[in-house]
Amino acid sequence: MPTPEQTHWVILAGGQASRMGGNDKGLIELAGQPFIQHVINTLAPQTSHISINANRNQDLYRQYGDVFGDSIENYPGPLGGMHAALHHIDNDWIGFVPCDCPQLPADLVVRMAAACQPDTDIAVAHNGDYIQPVVTLLHRRILPKLEAFLANGDRKIILLYRQCNMITVDFSDQADAFINLNTPEELSQFGVRHESN
Predict the structure, then answer these.
(1) Which of 25, 124, 141, 181 has its CA 20 to 30 A from that of 19?
(2) Which domains does the chain have, with CATH numbers?
């Protein structure tokens, strides 16, 4: 199994954010900081290897770290970012988190890494009710399956996972850690709750 230091983590900020009015979600501010900074604040104490997958505003994102875009056109979603990461990063184990989860677990990296076995292809976080398919740690051996999957026109992330040796990692003790904010209404409601905590 990988140690946390052997993993490289990617913040996925490459989507179109159509439900957020087309605004670049990673750069939307919450409590005075852009989403991307909230995610980095959580990840940085856990790993020294962080990159950002972004297809827009790359110069702005470079203020926060290493940036790379998708190599597949037309926004194939998280799988596009995963595909690009496997070509951009040399590590065997690459983890992913979305840019719109501002309160990820402070022990995410160590728990995800510890759950992996030598034959694990993909470890996916589970909040006790649902898997969180974009919070994942995968081995680069899945790249041929991923490329064939994308070439076939498929985009549903869970269908790819079912073709691989997938495990789930229990985070039911931190179920709220995976709240993601997709619309201005969700952002507003979360901000009100966040300020009242």
Answers:
(1) 124
(2) 4-195 (3.90.550.10)
Instruction: Provide the annotated binding site for Mg(2+).
Output: 100
Residues 1-60 have pLDDT tens digits of 899 999 999 999 976 554 444 567 788 888 888 999 999 999 999 999 999 999 989 999
Tens digits of per-residue pLDDT, 130-175? 999 999 999 999 999 999 999 888 888 999 999 999 999 999 999 8
- The residues near 35 (Cβ < 8 Å, ≥ 6 apart) are 25, 26, 27, 28, 29, 99, 100, 102, 181
pLDDT tens digits for 62-79?
999 999 999 887 767 899
Q: Which residue positions form the known binding site for GTP?
A: 12-14, 25, 53, 70, 100
